[in-house]
Automatic annotation (TrEMBL):
Its EC number is 5.3.1.24. GO terms for molecular function: isomerase activity. It is an enzyme of class 5 (isomerase). It comes from Oceanobacillus jeddahense. The keyword Calcium does not apply. Keywords: Amino-acid biosynthesis, Aromatic amino acid biosynthesis, Isomerase, Tryptophan biosynthesis. It catalyses: N-(5-phospho-beta-D-ribosyl)anthranilate = 1-(2-carboxyphenylamino)-1-deoxy-D-ribulose 5-phosphate. InterPro entries: Aldolase_TIM, PRAI_dom, RibuloseP-bd_barrel, TrpF_fam. Pathway: Amino-acid biosynthesis; L-tryptophan biosynthesis; L-tryptophan from chorismate: step 3/5. This is N-(5'-phosphoribosyl)anthranilate isomerase. Residues 3-197 form the N-(5'phosphoribosyl) anthranilate isomerase (PRAI) domain. Pfam families: PRAI.
Amino acid sequence: MLIKICGITSSEIAETAVQAGADFLGFVFAKSKREISADQARKIIAALPEHVKSVGVFVNKDVQEIEKIARITGLDLIQLHGEESAETVSSLTLPVIKSLPGTEEGIKKAAQYDAASYLLMDSPPLPHAHGGNGISFNWSMLKDYTFSNQLILAGGLTPENVAEAIQLVNPSGVDVSSGVETDGKKDPDKIKAFIQAAKRTIERNR
Ligand SMILES: O=C(O)c1ccccc1N[C@@H]1O[C@H](COP(=O)(O)O)[C@@H](O)[C@H]1O
């Protein structure tokens, strides 16, 4: 199971997450307090070890713009966190993580996104923010579904609740942003605690 830490804005926090055992690091190229420039992201990504993959997070951006940022920064995967179509997913040249709201309607839409390597279930967007809101949804609604894509669970995960979420949903991955922050900034101790809690649960479930 993979662990993604999202909203990386510094080399120090990237290094902390890598040392703690993160598999994916997320870089937000969308309106957010965690937004990062392509130039800053490029420098951080260039220093990542081969086994840690960089994910660019986009919200309703043009394919050309996404591809341009991916080229400049050296991204490994693209996360589409808005209302992007199945055609947009298919036209991207990198593997895609497509987010959908964790609602009955969101689950129904999943079938359209066969071309995505991963589906990411998050709480529904707020009017002013598509993601990174620290809000959970009813995870148990995912228990009875099997998706053709690998499932990443997100939305309000924390070091305290990630074990319960993994037990309940058994996803292919978990993704966190707000839950590893203190006063709006990434907190190294919370990142370590989150990754430890997730890994401990995975080990126990083996
Ligand atoms: O992290 C952000 O700022 C962000 C901005 C725009 C779209 C997505 C964003 N992050 C993703 O949101 C979910 C949930 O985050 P949280 O843990 O509830 O804060 C997660 O998939 C992030 O990758």
